[in-house]
Amino acid sequence: MRLRIIDAFTDRPFHGNPAGVLLLDGPFPPDAWLQQVAAEVNLSETAFAHPLPPGGDADWALRWFTPAAEVDMCGHATLATAHALATAGLAEGLIRFTARCGILTAEVAEDGTVTMDFPTSSLTPVDAEPEIARALGAEIKSVHDTSAHIGDLVVELADERTVRELAPDFAALRGHSRRGVIVTAPAEDPSRGYDFVSRGFFPALGIDEDPVTGSAHTALAPFWAARTGRTEMTGLQGGARRGLVRVRLKGERTLLTGHAVTVIDGELHASP
């Protein structure tokens, strides 16, 4: 089976967020094998997809695994999967996926950019737990919980510099959210090409920091739209490794746009 490593939300190798992509000919192998492959690839997400019969609501079935667990929704690995399908000549234009979070679509443009249609996350204000502030080592302005398929806490910090210089206590963060913690702040200088910044920490899933989390932007889009009055923005996410996510808020749906580039294209020899 052909295994690709694709950097998502970037047009340059070794930037953005890398994802493993395995395109299967038939139904998904046993979950234990999928989890073993994801652990072996050892990236924040590995996507597995197989084609569906024509005439249905979706063209491909899609699942995502971290090295430690399956997740309900993943943006960067979906973008990587759409890129793999398009570059392999297996799909063009609009691609429909069925996943644990419902029907998702990804449209590949002529310039190679991929626009994904995801459900917009809800945002529920919650109290800022002192333990989270201590684990982050920063003063918190606000905290919001997100919808079930995401399960992150969106934590607003004072400014971009605070976000960039954050050095969390990952052991202390573990257990304080269902999935992860997304910290965010407005861009210091929007003329640089982005409107807000963020970083994502997921120690409970075996990922201390995820460079660019597409699904988190389904919560960041309404969060920053409520503060800016804008429905189209660009987010910069990451610490040492970064990527750009263009967002467009359309009520109950959020469009996420980015580039991708294949870095490794090889063969998986371990069969199910």
Question: What is shown here, in short?
Answer:
The protein is α+β, with helices and mostly antiparallel strands.
How does the SSE layout of this entry go?
Layout: E1 2-8, E2 17-23, H1 31-41, E3 46-51, E4 60-65, E5 70-71, H2 75-87, E6 94-99, E7 102-108, E8 114-119, E9 123-125, H3 130-136, E10 142-146, E11 152-156, H4 160-165, H5 170-173, E12 180-186, E13 196-202, E14 207-210, H6 217-228, E15 232-238, E16 242-250, E17 253-258, E18 260-267
Parallel strand pairs: 2-3, 4-6, 11-12, 13-15
Antiparallel strand pairs: 1-2, 1-18, 3-4, 4-5, 6-7, 7-8, 8-17, 9-10, 10-11, 12-13, 13-14, 15-16, 16-17
Strand content range: 35-45%
- What does the largest sheet look like? 18 strands, mixed
* Shape, principal axes of CA atoms: globular
The portion of residues assigned to helices is: 10-25%
Radius of gyration: 18 Å
Distance between the termini: 11 Å
Topology as H/E string? EEHEEEHEEEEHEEHHEEEHEEEE
- State the helix count: 6
* Average pLDDT reading: 95
Q: Which secondary-structure class do the elements indicate?
A: alpha+beta
- The count of β-strands is 18
Q: Identify low-pLDDT runs.
A: none
